[in-house]
């Protein structure tokens, strides 16, 4: 008679292995070879590996059609003698680097670069500071008032910038402008009914900056509020028990927690504000005397006013390079902070 251990051993050896025949089959336990997955398992793994590519394919096609191709076409035009003749004939001669040379040696180039960087910095700084204040206000409001303020912010953010620029133009319009009428009614600064805000550099910057910041604050405020609402209340309770003031807790608890979100909204604000066009063009058209002439306005003027499309394309390429250089540092920091969180 065989023992119980021998019977168990014999039963184990007689059991077939997945992917093989029996004890002596290919891939069986007795052959000493690794067990290979079945054909159905391999097919499922291949389909699973292709699934992300299939899901990303529509976005990749749109990206190629709407971003990559226009950018490549822009670079090509910047090296061509592209003007009105090229538009009608469809033929543009090769201009080499003459478009870039003409732009870089233009007397307006460096003032426009400096002006664009300063205006972008002022817009981003104003947007972030006011957005942080509004986000902090939302955390201290009740449910009803917080909902009302949030709805107002969303409505202001959803308003098209062309429509809001026209409203702003009406507010600051001479003779019929609401703001000029209110200032005149105060009877402190004299009669400002005929004051044209777009005719003075300082006032022109005032109306442009306030408009852009007013449009950008809702996104920043709501994004920072969403991030701030995720901070655990235990931290603030511990700070209050330690006797920390509100400002100390905001500086030691809130700001470090908001750092990644602040970095993200800063990058987006730099990109958006660097490319501001509609607001400046509708309010000041780059004036007075090129005081509000930024790279976006200069590109439009060179391309569609002077009909020098090659030079306009060269300015656009230079703008892209500058914007990439400005945002690359922040993008590296954002990626690095994400890796540290992991």
Overall mean pLDDT stands at: 84
> What's the total helix number?
14
Radius of gyration: 32 Å
> Tally of extended strands?
2
**Percent helix:** over 70%
Question: Poorly predicted ranges (pLDDT <50, ≥5 residues)?
Answer: 1-31
What structural class do the secondary elements suggest?
Answer: mainly alpha
Main beta sheet: 2 strands, antiparallel
Give the ordered list of helices and strands.
HHEHEHHHHHHHHHHH
**Going across the major beta sheet, what is the strand order?**
1-2
Distance between the termini: 62 Å
Explained architecture:
The chain has 342 residues and is mainly alpha-helical. The protein contains 14 helices and two strands. It has helices spanning 4-14, 39-78, 84-89, 98-104, 109-140, 143-158, 161-171, 178-186, 201-228, 233-241, 246-274, 278-283, 295-305, 309-341, and strands at residues 80-81, 93-94. The protein has a two-stranded antiparallel ribbon with strand order 1-2. The longest helix has 40 residues, at 39-78. The two termini are 62 Å apart. Residues 1-31 have low confidence and may be disordered.
Architecture blueprint of SSEs:
Blueprint lengths: L3 H11 L24 H40 L1 E2 L2 H6 L3 E2 L3 H7 L4 H32 L2 H16 L2 H11 L6 H9 L14 H28 L4 H9 L4 H29 L3 H6 L11 H11 L3 H33 L1
Antiparallel strand pairs: 1-2
Helix pairs in contact: 2-14, 4-14, 5-9, 5-11, 6-9, 9-11, 11-14, 13-14
